[in-house]
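2024-03-11 09:14:02 INFO receiving multi-entity request
2024-03-11 09:14:02 INFO entity count = two
2024-03-11 09:14:03 INFO echoing inputs for audit
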Amino acid sequence: MSVIADFVDLLGRDAVLDSGLDLKLYGRDAGIMRGQVTVVVLPETTSEVSSIVQIAERHGLPIVARGAGTGLAAGAVPARGGVVVSTMRMNQIEDVDLDNRTAWVGPGVINLDLSRHTGPHGLHFAPDPSSQQSCTIGGNVANNSGGPHCLAEGTTVNHVLGLEVVLEGGEVLVVGGVAPDPIGLDLRGILVGSEGTLGIVTKVLVRLVQNPPAVRTILAAFPTVEQAAATVSGIIAAGVVPAALEMMDQAMTVAVENWLHAGLPTDAAAILLAEVTGSSEAVDVEAKIVLEISQEHGAISARLAADEAERAILWKGRKSAFGAVAQSAPDYYLHDTVVPRTRLVEAMSEVYRIGEHYGIKMMNVFHAGDGNLHPLMAFDASEPGMLERVHSAADELVEVCVRLGGALSGEHGIGLEKRDLMPLMFTAHDLDAQARIKEAFDARDIFNPDKILPTGSRCFDFGRTIPEGAWV
Amino acid sequence: MGVNPKPVEIGELEKSAPELTVGLPPAPHTFAPGTIDEVGEIMRAASADRHSVMFWGGGTHQGIGHPLEAEVLLSSAGMRSLISWEPDDLTVVVEAGMPVGELETLLASRGQTAGLPELVGAATVGGVVSTGLSGYRRARYGPTRDRMLEVILVTGDGRIVRGGGRVVKNVTGYDLPRLATGSMGSMGFIASVCLKLWPLPESSVTVPVPDARRASLVAYRPLAVLETDEGSNVYLQGPSRDLEVAAKALGEDPRPGLLWPHPLDAGSVFSLRVPPARITDAIKRLPPGRFIAQHLVGDIWFSPLEPDVVALAGVRTWAEGIGGALITIRAPAGLGFDPWGTPPPGVALQRRLMAAFDPRRVCNPGRMPGMN
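2024-03-11 09:21:47 INFO inference complete, emitting structure
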């Protein structure tokens, strides 16, 4: 039987997509890379996923798991064709355990739906990527997603206590659980952020955190990016780790304000959006510190959001900023790199320098508190040579950040986008060790092949060496 | 990089300074190397001749896991330096042999903490990471695994491998730092780690409470809620004005500072791990003796007056039945109680992962559950 007939037999016709349009749609994510797809399947249960893996293996086809496709690093873009497994129908929120503050959820549950579901119980799922209205928990697990509020709360890996995963051969394994410190190697830790290259996560045990009793949101505007960045360092140095600490530069603020009319200070070179959470006493103390430090660093204005309505509109501006870019240019490329927080000023001046050098408009809205940059390059792809310039600028940005002691990606993942930049950060031995991890899980290389690690990473068999650089 | 030279015999490697190996248990070959390259040389030699290697930090938690009689004892005592500390980045990089207490004292001098276990005597950073132990403050700051930003390992066959990075947010390759946490030396020698830090809040108080479970549900994100055989306390940190109000809500007079319970120092200590909501139930099942139970976490360390294997096995069966575990932290030799209990699922996969780092199985062999 053909692979499609096998899948129709297993799942029914409506759960198998193979039309030309579907194959095109599922061959891409929210980034700019494209891949080929053989067939798309939409399972509803773990046992279906297990059978899908067996069928794909029998037909010699690679498997790419996919959530909502909001990723930007081509993690869900098939590099070698094959079967795309969409988890969107595995969207059950099961077993909300209020006593232990945990829940088992399907990988296709939308991030924001989970927090809305548990909200009436005073609990939420802390990771809040800007795409949280559409991205899935499974995708968050694959990319160890963050979001503005991971500054104090940590990223997805801090909020995943257990996983059910389908491995090679269709084996189903449950790792972790509600009890602390499961014995043996921490397989949860290695599965989170593995971008679907080790198996397919079919259920996630998430930790839910208490909604804070009080929140204060602060908006501060600065005459220079440097002063805003110095304020970020000053706040941390003063012993305050805000729940969120975001920066938006003038180009981005103008774009957002044109669309949102939230009263953002468009005359400022940079604005900071800070949020402190806790008891009402604690937030008043911390908000005062944030306001004082902003003023010490020459803020043009610094004030508290007046009420919940204003807070909501400020966050709407932050989280929808990328949508507002459409007015600036027809295409955009959103980058994701990290530097140590103390190198923010240098990193930002390099961002603008690189933009000028390549003639690309750089707009910035990012997680300043943890040094996670998101330069957005606005451009017109129909301009000849533009895409090449964008790629060169993107690579140079990564090189600069690594030189400043940073990392390739803070929360978007490596995927295909940054795979070949991995040697900037890791030695041949480091990459070989990573390739051995992949091999331990997936010796036949069926799960999302060609992602994360550059070709030839696995080159250091015991007792045998290959000249350094041979794999690049 | 050239072709690796043929490893030398382990006995030919230069001995370490004797003062670094004082107090270590006897072993045919004992080393306390001062550099990561020396560790690499030792591991290559050991691996080539399949000599088993036992890693040694402060020696405070060597009772965890299956006991080991290794041919090579590799101590981290010669590698205890601070490599870098960026207070404004809230990150620190230290060598594995740095004692936890020394690191925390240093960090406190600039109002910071790594949130590592409290009152652990000579325990080292490498030992705490390797055993995966966390401090009482994990209820607020998360477990040690959440502190791990970067790890540099020397693998069983002497490769130097780095994973993670020195930034607080990172998804660049597989999360080796977390995999190494709690790996009990099965992946190699942890040479150095980069840890995420937290600022120490302005004030701390200890609030005695009559009902720990109730208090743990009332308090908003306390630092810790501990119940012991002597009573229960809620530990709070924050701006002093906030603490006054929070303590009042709990209904007791706060005492200044963090008054942690005296560590369990008897010859038998076990860790009972259960879903946090089952902790009161778990405490009822403990044999007579001292205990320290962490509400909101679900970990109870206890010292039975008389370690009775049958009674312990009964508690273990109950704990495993609700998704928990009962493990040995230390026990008298010959107690005859399996240190881990039922091995976790996926033992074959775990074995393959260990082999990726230690192809000849020389690193603390057999120490992990299901590996002996």
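2024-03-11 09:21:48 INFO post-check: Chain B touches chain A through 89 residues (CB under 8 Å).
2024-03-11 09:21:48 INFO post-check: Chain B has a mean pLDDT of 94.
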